[in-house]
Specification:
This protein is mostly helical. It is built from 4 helices and no strands. It is extended.
């Protein structure tokens, strides 16, 4: 049986040990945007249920979702959708076996982040 006395060392590499890398941060961001989009779907369902319930309740929910805070949430969701979609396209490109050189991985990540901001601005301008 192996010695279970590991001293004061962590059992596995920990965030305190490693410096965050661009690719790891983008991976975490991809997961966060996925959760954000799921929460956005809850807002849309809430709005649709309010529309199906009664006019007074719909006015309440619609007022919240079109307020300045609601607008900020919608802009955040537009960015999450843009980022998640563009990063998904990046992953599809990787699935073809391309873009795995470290400089290409970093460049494609930066392009995805920049393009997601541009797409979000376009969405806001068109929907605004």
């Amino acid at each position: 049986m192996a010695d279970v006395n590991r001293g004061n060392r962590p059992l596995s590499p920990h965030l305190q040990v490693y410096r965050p890398q661009w690719t790891s941060m983008l991976s975490i961001l991809n997961r966060i945007t996925g959760v954000g989009m799921a929460l956005g779907a809850v807002f849309i369902v809430w709005w649709l249920l309010a529309a199906a319930t009664d006019a007074e309740y719909f006015e309440f929910v619609n007022g919240l979702l079109t307020s300045w805070l609601g607008s900020l949430i919608w802009i955040g969701l537009a960015w999450a959708l843009s980022y998640h979609t563009l990063n998904g396209i990046r992953h599809l490109w990787w699935d073809t076996g391309n873009g795995f050189d470290l400089d290409q991985v970093e460049l494609s990540g930066k392009v995805v982040v920049a393009a997601s901001v541009v797409v979000t601005v376009l969405i806001v301008l068109i929907a605004g």
